[in-house]
Every structure is written in C-alpha cells, then in structure tokens.
Amino acid sequence: MKKHLHDLTIKGFHEGLLNKEFSAFEIAEGYFDWIAEKDKEVGAYLSLQKDEALKSASEVDVKVASGVEVDVLAGVPLAVKDVVLIEDAPASAGSKILEKYSASYDATVIKKLKEAQAVFLGKTNLDEFAMGSSTENSGYRLVHNPYDLLRVPGGSSGGSAAAVAANMALAALGTDTGGSIRQPAAFCGVVGLKPTYGAVSRHGLIALASSLDQIGPFGKTAEDAAIVFSKIRGSDPFDSTSVEAEEDDLLKPDFERIKKLRVGIPKEYFAGGLSPEVEKGMAEAERRLRSLKLEFEEISLPHTKYALSVYYIILPAEASANLARFDGIRYSRIVSEKEVKSLRDIYFKDRGAGFGAEPRRRILLGTFVLSAGYYDAYYAKAQKVRRLILRDFDEAFKKVDVIFAPTTPTSAFKIGEKTEDPLSMYLSDIFTIPANLAGVPAVSIPVKKYSLADKELPIGLQLIGRHFREADILGLGQYYERL
Questions:
Q1: What pLDDT, on a 0 to 100 scale, did the predictor assign at position 408?
Q2: What is the pLDDT of residue 2?
Q3: Which of 31, 104, 241, 320 is deepest in the core (most CB within 10 A)?
C-alpha cells in the first residue's frame, strides 16, 4: 500500500479505482497509517478527519461498485490548509486565538470538492494567520521539510506542501498572498499554483489581505494541479471579486499551441542575489525549455524593486483591518471568566494570549500606515506604485505570453536561521510577491524530479501568465515535465 501512495497521481488513482486495483477506502486508510508513522517527524497536520474521510471514501466505493460514473477527483485524498473552512472541522488559522473554534459552514472551494466527492484527510499546519515564509510562526508546532528535517518547508502553506511532498496527501489546498503556495512548493519539490486574483472564490477563507489572497492547489505534477484548479475555479455569489471560468484547454493542453508560446526572461530577476544552487537550477531549466524550441525574449519589469516595500505596507494595512474581528468575544474565548473584570480585560488578555509575535508585528505596522497623517504618505503611495507594477506586467505581456523566473532566491534554509531577522525572512518572497500585487497567475514547478532518498534540496522555477491564462502556465509546465 505504501508503494501505491508514493507512486500515485490523481489520474493514476482514478484509473486504479475504476480498474478495481484498490478501493478508495483502502487508499484513505493507507494514508492515515502513513500519516501516523511519518507526521511525527514532519508536523504537516494540525488535525485529522479520519472518520469523515473513511465514510466519504466508502461512499465512492459503493458508486464505483454500482457502475455509477464518478468524477476524476472522487475518492482522492486531499489535505486542506487550516485557513479554509470545512464545516464542523477545527479552523485555527495556526493561531491560539482560534484554538477552540470549529467552522460553521463550508468554504465554496470545499463545497465544490465535496460535489466531486474528494476525501479530506485533515487540516494542515501554517504560519499563524498565513503570516510567514517558513511555517515557523505556527502557534502549535514546527513543520519540517521532508527533504531535510533540519530545514523549513517554506510558508505560509508549509504544512500542505510538506504533506504532498511526504506522500501524506495526494494533493492539497493552500493560500497565496505573497508567495505562500509557490515558495513552499519550491522548497518541497512539488507543484504549487497561485491562480489569477478572482479565479477562485475566497468565501470561507479566513482573510489575511483581501486584495491579495488566493486559494490554490498543490500537486505532484502540473496535471494534478490543473485537475484540482479546474474543480475549484469559477464565480461565486458570495465573493463579488470572483469571475466565471472561460472555456480553455486547461485539462487537455494543446502542445502544438504551447510550443508557440513566447517566453519572457525579466532581467531584474536575474540581476544577482540568487544562491549558486538556484542559479544552476535556473540555467538548467532554461536550457531544457530552449531545447523545446520555444521563443525566448528578454523583458523588463522595472518596478519590481519596489514590490517588497509596497507589499509590506498593503498587506499589514489589510491584515490589521481583517484581524480586528478576533476580539475575544466572537468566534471563541481563550481566557476564563475569572480572569476578566471588564470588556477592556477581554480585549487585552485574549489578544495578548492569542496572537503570536508576527501577527502583532504586522497588526501594529498596518495600524500605523493607516493612521491619520500617515495614510497618504504610506498606504496611498503604495497603492500607486502597485499600479505601476501591474502596468509593467501589462507591457511585458504585449511582447510575451509567459514569464520565466526563479520561485525563490535560495533553496530551503535551516530552521531558526532567519527567525531573528524579519527582513531576511521577507526577502525569501521577493520573486513571488509581484504576481500577487498584479493579480496575475503563477506556478512553481520543480526544476527536475526530486527524490526524498537522495537528500538533494529541491529548486523551483516560476512561470507567470496573463490574467486568467492558467492554461498557458500549467500547459507549459506539463510540457516541461515531459522532459
């Protein structure tokens, strides 16, 4: 059974299920056995839904045995980042302030996956309220990189990336506000897609920065990511920013069309600062893509150098507003009645005990940049520069179809290496943040197929596409994987 878990892709699972090579119940049970063995050292999960998962898997088996046609995701064991709501399941957002909270409804993406009869194994660990680049900011436990347990898996969706990399889930959901899917995907050697802003409903997502957040999939392959994305995308009346999906070749890539895509290389992304192993990996990836006879062109994204500064004004500002709802009165109370004498006590004691260092830092910064006298100097100016960053992408996409770039400046760093230096930690997202500010889709693809056995640290290449052209970057990713 363990061999099955390590070799499966979504299509492989679906074919094996229909051919009666195994049952959905057997595979789900196998995943829980492997999680019990492996997750002690990785720490990918915060909670498991074993009873619900096995029940869902059994229902799929009954349909298959009856000859009823089932969806390609039916019975597929998925992990879900613990900021996406599943009814009656814990929803902590990695924070002690929500330790006692369970969701009262399903997020829209969960509803869609339930309709496809996917199986949810459990909720994965993350940086508290998705604030971080290493998953060291979790209020509960560390997550370790399956390739080297002394290193981080990336963040903030480190638990989801680690679960897929360690074969503790066939695929997973994460969220990406400034690189929180792509960066851990690169560190853990899996595929991670940040969809176009508005391509996937955010209803039922515990918000961090509402103009940047997007839910997206992790998979072992670009095809797996495309399958999950195809199920969760589309408009939703509960999210006014969501957009209806258009017909495209997402699930059946036209490789003759893919071969004609023009690929842009932004000179600002290769101007220095890459670690030797990432530089070598990117050179190898570029050589492989060039061998496919794709047309390459150097482009410029001149305002990229301001992206990090802009992001760390806009994100804390929006986070300070979104996190104001966690006041110790709504959702759950973590201080006892004996500890409080007034409403002020509830606010201060609950928040003081509930929020970790990173949320406090960002709430304070966000409150400051939105305060009287500083709003125009910081927040308003950051929004103007954000518009210039979007314009850079618009100009670039007049010349090219896809942009090729590194996902991260380094491979996975050691646990504790950057915790005392927030700026150094923030810089690990320097290549992923611009896509969030512009709202364009981007995917991280492993430079090559990595094996947990050889202990080589993974490197990710990033493909950035036009708005709502996930089919281009995932199609090119599948074309690249064929090599």
A1: 97
A2: 58
A3: 31
Choosing from 23, 180, 201, 320, the catalytic residue is 180
Q: Could you tell me the sign of the dihedral formed by the alpha carbons of 249, 252, 257, 258, in that order?
A: positive
Catalytic residue among 23, 95, 133, 156: 156
Is position 252 annotated as part of the catalytic site?
no
pLDDT digits (tens, 9 = 90+) for 309-320: 999 999 999 999
Beta strands 77-81 and 262-266 are: unpaired
**Average pLDDT score over residue span 462-483:** 96
pLDDT for the residue numbered 5: 75
267 tagged catalytic? no
2-259+403-481 maps to which CATH number? 3.90.1300.10
Q: Is 156 a catalytic residue?
A: yes
Q: Where are the domains of the chain?
A: 2-259+403-481, 305-384
Select which of 81, 112, 194, 448 is catalytic: 81
